[in-house]
From TrEMBL:
Keywords: Cell membrane, Membrane, Transmembrane, Transmembrane helix. The lineage of its organism: Bacteria, Pseudomonadati, Pseudomonadota, Alphaproteobacteria, Sphingomonadales. This is DUF421 domain-containing protein. The keyword Membrane applies. It comes from Alteriqipengyuania halimionae. Residues 91-157 form the YetF C-terminal domain. The keyword Membrane applies. Its main location: membrane.
Length: 172
């Protein structure tokens, strides 16, 4: 008589469920497009984190019904993100509610202390980003922008096109 090894069964089940969950996410991305995994807005970022959590949880559940619920929740996340992106395009009020506004942290080599206080970004945070952008002197910096995603953009060089700061708060 053959006796099943519970550890082997658990590992095999986890591998199979993880493969199914990842395949399902791939199908959903192919249907909705790569925009689903972007982090253009804080809403998109939360979507990506929640999706990762569901994939991880889905591979660890012990009941098929729980796994099916995780797959349905993944599809619901994609639907919510798709709906939110459509609503953002059609309504400025929704756009304002969902998306953060980019904010200017540095302009022409000068720190914007009020914006730094508001966003809780320190001078050392900005200096680290300047190093990443290969800035050699503060006078090279035209602008540092905290983007809607939380990323920091460093614009440096000879001149700055005003269009690059369109929609950025604290540019006066």
């Amino acid at each position: 008589m053959l006796v099943a090894d519970p550890l082997f069964d658990t590992v095999l089940r986890s591998l199979i469920l993880a493969a199914i969950a990842l395949s399902w996410v791939t199908v959903l991305i192919r249907i909705t497009g790569l925009r689903s995994l972007s982090k253009m807005t804080s809403f998109d970022f939360v979507m990506t984190i929640a999706l990762g959590s569901l994939v991880a949880t889905g591979a660890m559940v012990t009941k098929w019904l729980d796994f099916l619920q995780a797959l349905i929740a993944m599809a619901a996340l994609f639907l919510a993100q798709f709906t939110a992106s459509r609503l953002r395009k059609s309504s400025e009020m929704v756009e304002t509610a969902i998306q953060n506004e980019p904010i200017l942290l540095m302009k022409d080599g000068e720190f914007r202390r009020d914006a730094m206080d508001t966003t809780r970004v320190t001078e050392s945070d900005i200096i680290a980003k300047l190093r990443e952008a290969n800035v050699l002197d503060f006078s090279e910096v035209r602008a540092v922008v905290l983007e809607t995603t939380g990323d920091v953009s460093v614009l440096h060089g000879d001149a700055l096109d005003d269009a690059l700061l369109e929609g950025v708060r604290n540019t006066d």
